[in-house]
Backbone:
């Protein structure tokens, strides 16, 4: 419940404040968002399966975003930033699909 | 915290595929909860944990919206490479420089026109413009730096399309006034192959074809001589080409208005 309210408040804040993404954050924010989405779907699925734990969620959320951003940073330093970003997005996308599949199975049994 | 509780580790990735994988899945089969299964999620649980989760979700929603909006704003140059951006920038710089020059000229003209009560300057301006348009339309004789190009065609291998290429190449290279033999080229000049030879604007052209073009001699010579360009094509047809840059080319032929 609080998560849903937080999500809505966040969207509303973003729409109201319309802040600019700082230059130094621009390469990392999209990847971090995908990582966070993965963590969120994972949390939702864990909740549905009854194994949800706030601490795990917070740690995985923060850890995922930070590691995703670090990988992109490392890629930029090595000169393969765009390829590594693509790789990270593909891996996270697969995980999101897996999590959504779990959610779907829990909810609809299909 | 055991690994089994990690939301991402408790199941392998093999469920990411098609929807049929779930029906015979590896986990214990449970009665599907349907959309009602979502309802318990809305019940508040432990306060602190819930609050942290809510905060993170707030952050996520905020970040998503910010990112989407910033990406919406500028997609034109975000994906361009560095050298493209440099090219665009220098193009813009040149254009603004040119436009600034135009502004200066127009302001000078405006000042002169304002000072001049009798209309002398206006008349002069109008005459200058009439001369410029007359040169472009081909109704006035012209004189200036340019080139003379002679295409000797003893074998008769040159076609109308070659002469048209020559004219277009000269125009592309900045020729303002062009004369072919005794025909002044205009906007509607054409070339046709006929039994009598090549007809240009209702007059028969006979070899050698002599082009007089006024413009930058160096640019035009370079343009005609590029590998695979006009000179090579015409030479391939058995003709010879002579190009003379000249400080003064006189174009005497005119078109009837």
Residues:
């Amino acid at each position: 419940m609080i998560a849903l309210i937080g999500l809505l408040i966040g969207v509303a804040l973003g729409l109201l404040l319309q802040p600019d993404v700082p230059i130094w954050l621009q390469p990392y924010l999209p990847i971090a968002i995908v990582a966070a989405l993965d963590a969120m779907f994972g949390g939702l699925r864990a909740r549905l399966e009854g194994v949800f734990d706030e601490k795990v969620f917070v740690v995985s959320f923060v850890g995922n975003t930070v590691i995703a951003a670090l990988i992109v940073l490392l890629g930029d330093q090595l000169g393969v930033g765009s390829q590594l970003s693509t790789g990270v997005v593909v891996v996270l996308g697969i995980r999101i699909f897996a999590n959504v599949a779990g959610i779907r199975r829990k909810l609809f049994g299909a | 915290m055991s690994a089994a509780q990690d939301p991402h580790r408790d199941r392998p990735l093999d469920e990411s595929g098609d929807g049929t994988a779930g029906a015979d899945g590896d986990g214990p089969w449970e009665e599907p909860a349907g959309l009602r299964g979502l309802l318990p999620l809305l019940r508040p649980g432990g306060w602190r944990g819930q609050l942290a989760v809510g905060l993170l979700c707030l952050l996520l929603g905020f970040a998503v919206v910010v990112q989407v909006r910033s990406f919406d704003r500028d997609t034109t140059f975000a994906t361009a490479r560095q050298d493209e951006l440099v090219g665009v920038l220098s193009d813009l710089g040149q254009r603004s420089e040119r436009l600034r020059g135009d502004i200066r000229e127009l302001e000078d003209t405006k000042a002169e026109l304002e000072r001049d009560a009798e209309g002398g300057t206006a008349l002069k301006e109008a005459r200058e413009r009439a001369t410029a348009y007359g040169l472009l339309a081909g109704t006035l004789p012209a004189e200036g730096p340019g080139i003379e190009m002679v295409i000797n065609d003893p074998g008769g291998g040159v076609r109308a399309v070659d002469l048209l290429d020559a004219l277009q190449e000269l125009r592309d290279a900045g020729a303002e006034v062009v004369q072919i033999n005794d025909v002044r080229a205009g906007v509607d000049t054409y070339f046709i192959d006929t039994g009598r030879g090549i007809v240009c604007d209702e007059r028969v052209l006979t070899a050698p074809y002599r082009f007089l073009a006024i413009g930058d001699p160096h640019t035009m010579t370079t343009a005609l001589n590029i590998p695979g360009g006009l000179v090579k094509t015409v030479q391939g047809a058995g003709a010879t080409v002579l190009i003379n840059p000249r400080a003064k080319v006189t174009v005497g032929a005119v078109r009837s208005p």
User: Anything to note?
Assistant: The radius of gyration of chain B is 37 Å. The first strand of chain B starts at residue 142 and ends at 152. Residues 82-115 of chain B form the longest helix (34 residues).
